Amino acid sequence: MPQDGSGDTPVIEFRNISRVYGTGEAEVRALDGVDLKIHHGEFVAIMGPSGSGKSTAMNVIGCLDSPTGGEYLFNGVDVAGLSQDQRALLRRHYLGFVFQGFNLLPRTPALENVELPLIYKGIPPEERRARAMEALEQVGLAQRAAHDPSELSGGQQQRVAIARALAASSEVLLADEPTGNLDSHRSVEIMELLVKLRAERNLTIVMVTHEDDMAAFADRLIWMVDGRVERDEPTRKEVPHVG
Amino acid sequence: MWAETIRLAIKAVARNALRSVLTVLGVVIGVAAVIAMVTVGQGSSDQVTQDVGKLGTNVLIVRPGQNTMGPGGSSTSARQFEQRDIDRLIAEIPQIEAASGAERTTMMAVAGNVNHQATVQGVTNAYLQATDWPVSLGRTFLSAEEDSGRPVCLLGETVRQDLFGNADPVGEKVRLKSLSCEVVGVLEAKGASSFGNDQDDTVMIPLRTFQRRISGTSTISMIYMAIEDGYSTDLAKSEIEAALRDMRRIGLGEEDDFSVMDMKQLASMLTGITSVLTGLLAAVAAVSLLVGGIGIMNIMLVSVTERTREIGIRLAIGAQARQVLQQFLVEAIVLSLMGGLLGIALGLGLAAIAANVMAIPFSPDPLVVLGAFGFSALVGVVFGYFPARRAARMDPIEALRHQ
Asked: Where do the MacB-like periplasmic core domain residues begin and end (chain B) (predicted)?
């Protein structure tokens, strides 16, 4: 299992990672020899045209998918060859997900949605409740704890999803187009929340996005084309920070 | 984790309350049918045991041939008994309190212009003593009447009602074919026997009278014996068997050509018939449990497909495949157990009503109830496993993409 990330060990390190689907003529190289290092507390945006491999990269980072080649070091430990169950444990203890479609359990109150990962962590009910409530407070939704997702706006739903990742005290937050379903005002709110949480909790955030405006909130932009990293550079800080 | 899983499963089942109820209907009906069948069967067995108990537990019945007791009656080539066999048994075994030969046939009894079909039995007073059957009017046979085969008779309550109404028939004449006999007494009402036939539908005449005037032989096809109170019937039985083997010259290693039955045996034979029938009916009912299980599997498969996204979310936040398997399996078990509980309640309710209507004891068997409960859990495991495995094998990426 990975060590607590400290010193110079990157949280996420790809060494010549490839992910190939199919064989022979039908072979698709979704990732084609990617090298990548992401350190603790970084906020990285991944962009690229569709089919560039950014979603595959996210899935591999999130241990939802296994690379077909190369080494993936998570906190310095190679996790490329882990079994499905081991990857599930890694996700449970280190990784939080925020999706474009929010992916909350329907007909389940916000609080219970946030508690969900804590159940799998085996945390007793009272502590679970307290931690979930705390996470909801951090995203400013404490008073909505009892509401079902269908009673919440898109922005609120996404904040519940962020709270769910926070409650599990994940080190790394993986956001797959988190603002894709939101209007620009809500999108900015979500990005500001991520920036704030990153600062408060020393979160590492990796975000896939289409939108330059959103990518501008990150410190670093990785541009992918055809399964390779084409550019990897700091973002120009044009968007003024609130507060 | 388990408590959590069960809580979750109950919530999931409650969320689709109507669908859940419809899903488990098959199990409900199956369990209810099995429980009702077995409970009613047990009740009627208990009834039989009770009835036979009323006949007297110290009564032994001896018949020629093997195992010919029961609704089928007897037909055997084995030698019939004679009066001297009975006399010798009484002489050899002092614990025999009363012994009587018994012959019976069905005949038309006529009084005045009224006809009545009745069981005519040739017996002695010892029979009435052995079966604990007193007279309510008049008297029993005199020994002179028994010895000389006089045409006198005792009427069962049913025959008396039919031929004479509530009037006192003592001293009246009843004609059995060509035999005209004088009524000397009326037997106390005894009710239906374990076979369901009316024991009071009878006319009793002295055995000798029966032999001379009706059967025309001196043979006896049945001996009723009462064993002294406090003496083991099993012991008496083996003594009688030994004596009979000797009297009938049955060699060592040869099978008995007669049978001695006590009431316990009779009861177990009768309840045996009931339990075979009960078992058959319950087996048919159990088939609907199978159908119920398939219903659960069907709905669980639908549910897994519907909740693909939920499964994706759970996998993404760190659920392991076996935890997802466990979740859906427990859900199926909760469903089928719910069906089982409803079925048990319904089955016991039906059995209670049936017992009331059929006037038999309501005898719920905790083992059967427990068995039904366990079996419905098993149905959940068996039919929930396949859908749960399908859920557990999902690829999280695909599942999350599912619309």
From this structure: 20-242
Radius of gyration of chain B (CA): 32
- The CA–CA distances, whole Å, from A110 to A116, B189, B330, B402 equal 10, 76, 24, 22
Would you place residue B261 in the very low, low, confident or very high pLDDT band (cuts 50, 70, 90)? confident
Averaged confidence pLDDT in chain B? 87
Check if the beta carbon of residue B224 is closer than 8 Å to that of residue B131: yes
Residue A182 has pLDDT above 60, yes or no: yes
Q: From A231, A229, A175, select the one nearest A198 (Cα to Cα).
A: A175
What ipTM, to 2 d.p.? 0.91
Q: What is the DSSP letter of B198?
A: B
Query: What amino acid is encoded at B27 in this protein?
Result: V
Q: With 80 as the cut, is the pLDDT of residue B77 above it? A: no
Three-state secondary-structure class, residue B132: coil
C-alpha–C-alpha distance, residues A232 and A216, integer Å: 14
Q: What are the two backbone dihedrals, phi and then psi, of residue B170, each rounded to the nearest 5 degrees?
A: -60, 130
Per-chain mean pLDDT for chain A: 90
Instruction: Kindly tell me if the per-residue pLDDT of B13 is higher than 90.
Output: no
- As a whole number of angstroms, the distance between CA A73 and CA B371 comes to 54
At B48 the pLDDT is 78
Chain A residues with beta carbon closer than 8 angstroms to that of B318? 88-89, 91-93, 95, 117, 120-121, 168
Q: Determine contact, residues B204/B109, Cβ cutoff 8 Å.
A: no
On whether both B227 and B286 belong to a single domain, the answer is no
Task: Please check whether residues B35 and B177 belong to one and the same domain.
Answer: no
B397 CB near a chain A CB, below 8 Å? Answer: yes
Tokens of B309: 């996204």
Comparison of pLDDT for A160 and B375, the residue scoring more: A160
Mention every residue, 6+ apart, whose C-beta is less than 8 A from residue A189.
A155
Q: What residues does each domain of chain A span?
A: 12-234
Between chain A and chain B, the number of residue pairs with CB atoms below 8 A apart is 58
Q: What is the pLDDT of residues B34-45, one digit of tens each?
A: 899 889 888 888
**Which of B310, B320, B400 is facing A88, going by the closest CB pair?**
B320
Looking at the domain assignment, is residue B215 inside a domain?
Answer: yes
CATH number of A12-234, picked from 3.30.930.10, 3.30.200.100, 3.30.2380.10, 3.40.50.300: 3.40.50.300
Do the strands A228-234 and B135-138 form a parallel or antiparallel pair, or are they unpaired? unpaired
Half-sphere exposure of A159 (CA within 13 A, CB side): 26
Residues of chain A contacting residue B322, judged by C-beta atoms under 8 Å apart = 85
Split into its structural domains, chain B has a count of: 2
**CB atoms < 10 A from the CB of B213, how many?**
18
Q: Give me the phi and psi of B137, to 5 degrees please.
A: -140, 150
pLDDT for B325-343, tens place per residue? 999 999 999 999 999 999 9
Q: Cβ–Cβ of B312/A59 closer than 8 Å?
A: no
Of the candidates B229, B223, B239, B222, the one whose C-alpha atom is nearest the C-alpha of residue B58 is: B229
Range scoring the smallest mean pLDDT among A14-18, A108-112, A181-185, B279-283: B279-283
pLDDT 10s digits, A46-73? 999 998 999 999 999 999 999 999 999 9
The domain boundary, picked from B221, B256, B291, lies at: B256
Residue of B56 and A145 predicted with greater confidence: A145
